[in-house]
Design brief:
TIM Barrel; Four Helix Bundle (Hemerythrin (Met), subunit A); 3 domains; five-stranded mixed β-sheet; 15 strands; globular
Length: about 625
Amino acid sequence: MEIKGIEIIRELEMIKTYTAFKIDDIESIEFKSFDAYDYQIIKRGKTYQVFYHQQRDIYAALGYILSHLNQKNYDIKRTRKLKSLGYMIDCARNAVPTIESLQRQVVNLALIGYTYIGLYLEDLFEIDEEPEFGYMRGRYTKSEISDLITFANNFDIEVIPYIQTLAHLNAIFKHPKYNSILDINDILLVDEPKTYELIEKMLITAQSMFNTDTINIGMDEAWQLGLGKYMHKHGYENRMDIMLKHLDKVLDICRRNDIKPQMWADMFFHLKGGAYFSKGVTSFEDIKGLVPNDVELVYWDYYHTDQKDYDDKFESLKTLTSNYGFAGGAWKWVGFAPFNGFSKRSSIPAIAACKKADVNHFVVTSWGDNGAEASMFSILPSLIFISGSFYEDDLTDEDEFIYGLTNCSMEAWMNLDKLNQIYPAKEIKTVNPSKYLLFEDILLGDSHIKLHKDYKKSYKAIKEMLEPYTTIESPYKYIFNTLYDLALVLSIKSTLSLKLYELYHKDDKKGLLDFVKNDLSEVIDNITQFYQDFKYQWHMENKPFGFEVQSYRFGGLLQRLEDIKDKIFDYAKGKTQEIEELDQRRLNLADDDDPYLGCIYYNQFVKYVTFGTF
């Protein structure tokens, strides 16, 4: 391939390494700088002219070319009213992506049209004189971040740190050293000088490591702010005043160090109205002058499906500041499977509202709540959809794009959602049965989990649907293997507790022996295989730190099933007279006319394995 106008041989080699795109089908491309559009592409046969505005637009244009190789001659002009489009990956909830994984994602993002990658860190970065920071949690070293930035610079992708300067710092409070700056839960103690000494170290270190003046300083979800040690020291104070006082102190540090801060906007809504997602428009006219305009307030929302909810929030935000952005979500935080369908459903009204509110900064968050089990690449369909939605056209071919990127069809990727969509309702709902049914204790059950006999049939169909994807040639094949094995496990385990309860109360001791020999033994073997594939996936993408949590969870699950086998066997053989747990248990069956068959969103591991203290 002949390249004219710029030197991108190295970048093209990286694209060949990390994607399945057929670059060699292009004979020649000539690049020219241009100001009118993000990019313009003129195709004539297998030769192309590309006019680009910024360096990063070169790779967005290449993404378009490579996903339209079979399209006949064309002349297209594309632009979007958006200064920055980011992807933020949660690195702080056990799964810490390796630099190699982040490099792969940088290539994907550049071709899709993103401008930066954000790393949500909390304490996951080195700080001089703070050896406890990120200790044994896979923290990033300065050299690792330097390598990532060097790589990302090739594609004009910025790397931005997302840290915390108020709450969500529970990990550091495992170290007694930080007790003096703890207010309550995971919240820093406002007005304590040592608090601001640490915050200044965090900010200066992040600025130096990431070679950027843009830092997200967090400050979200500090719901108990001022209600712990702060209240004991100062008495009860207006909590909005505490928030504003703390913000002023942190912004003063930012100004002294030429840092351009962003922060989440939720605490202002919470302290004003008692809930972040209160309906209607909230007015902040009384405190508008107290929130400096040199901090960007980022409104986050990945739940609502009605544009009015987003419009109202922006109207509220405009009474507080003129400097605001938006954070949507690519759902990968509900267990092992993604939820691209709902990501799209919530993004459509969110993006429409962002355009209406003249938002210049949009970031896609991908959190890792309660285990970060899902692959960060499993939400590629969401990333492609969101980026394409900001262009002033409908030219993005999502199917061809993701196939060229991964050698897997869009249908294949979207079918990964099915592990949580085991209900007949047409409307997509954010539920995660594939996680809680895996770990549910089949003796104890849970009054919050509604079990239904159709789950088995659903997971058997999903298993058969996913099986062909386990033979594809793709760098992401391991993701499909992992979720196929989960479907296989759930095609048996999802209704085991129902079957066990029925056999016991029929006093069918032969059936119970068969249950031990066949059902339980098979599901234990299948969970063991699923664990091996999940372990492979984890170590393909992440550092080893954090996987100990998964080892304990799966080890506990397998040992518990072995114990249940012994308990059932002893009862069936007459060695014991009862299984006390089954005598006490009352099933909470889903109604047959429930369109979601009792499926709920239930993501906390410790809550569905025991009613006791974990």
